[in-house]
Amino acid sequence: MTDLVEVWIVCVDVATEDAARCWEVLDGGERARAEGFRHDRDRRRFAVAHGALRILAGRVLAARPAELRWRPGPYGKPELARPWSGLHTSLSHSGDLIATAISTARPVGVDIQQLTPSADAIALSARYFPADEATFVADGADDGERAERFTALWARKEAVVKAAGTRLWPNLITAVRDGPVVSCVQPPSAHRVVDVVAPPGYRAAVALTGVAPFELRAFDWPSQELTAPAMAG
Q1: What is the number of other CB atoms lying within 10 angstroms of the CB of residue 126?
Q2: How many angstroms separate the CA atoms of 196 and 203, rounded?
Q3: Which residues, including other chains, have CB under 8 Å from residue 118's CB and lie 6 or more apart?
């Protein structure tokens, strides 16, 4: 059976009742972190992101979202604690959007990035990416195309790193452009990564550990929460 991963795209500006749902399911530590943000926008982004992840993971596990607990992995990636540790989750946010990913079989990483046209894409890719990827970025027709290429590659790298549960900076050299199977540099490990269709102005990707193919299902939250097929936990 092919492994399944769900990716949910969430807008920070959800309806008031949905934002309230997200706040209600946070634990004490998450509420404290949210309240520590100086700006309302940052506080809302954190609460919606973590609350939506709890609601969606609870949906799969048939568990109360507020009861779920995560613990930090070796490099700080949150992992669900027992008795829910068979489910794998990942979270990312950029600009006005949030991406959550859920996998029932293998560690997962998701990343979403807002496009920001800038000449810095050439310098950054030359500094951190493999030579062929840096050339690919530099060969874009204009700042917009170069930013699009850079952002798509960055999202794939972040997704792989999150699936591996490791650190980003040593792994920016990881080659992600040429195919779905990617060899992470540190620690050496294989991952399968695919692009996720994202709203205009954004690029996203999701990765699972291992080389085996997986089925990707992408949804919007909360609009498709009740109509999406049930995912077995």
Answers
A1: 14
A2: 7
A3: 143, 147
Q: Which long-range contacts (CB under 8 A, 24 or more apart) does 139-148 make?
A: 143/117, 143/118, 143/119, 144/115, 144/117, 146/117, 146/119, 146/121, 146/122, 147/115, 147/116, 147/117, 147/118, 147/121, 148/115, 148/203
- Is the pLDDT score of 232 beyond 80? no
When the pLDDT of each residue in the chain is averaged and rounded to a whole number, the result is 95
| Residues paired with residue 109 on neighbouring β-strands, in sequence order | 207
Token pair of 138, please?
A: 């530099």
Domain membership flag for residue 195: yes
- Global pTM? 0.96
Residue 46 resides in a domain: yes
Domain count, the chain: 1
Is 229 part of a structural domain of the chain? no
pLDDT in tens, 136-165: 999 999 999 999 999 999 999 999 999 999
Q: Tell me the C-alpha distance between 115 and 208, whole Å.
A: 24
- Distance separating alpha carbons of residues 100 and 54, to the nearest angstrom: 10
Tokens representing 1 are: 């059976």
Token pair for 126 = 């030359």
Backbone Cα Rg of the chain:
17
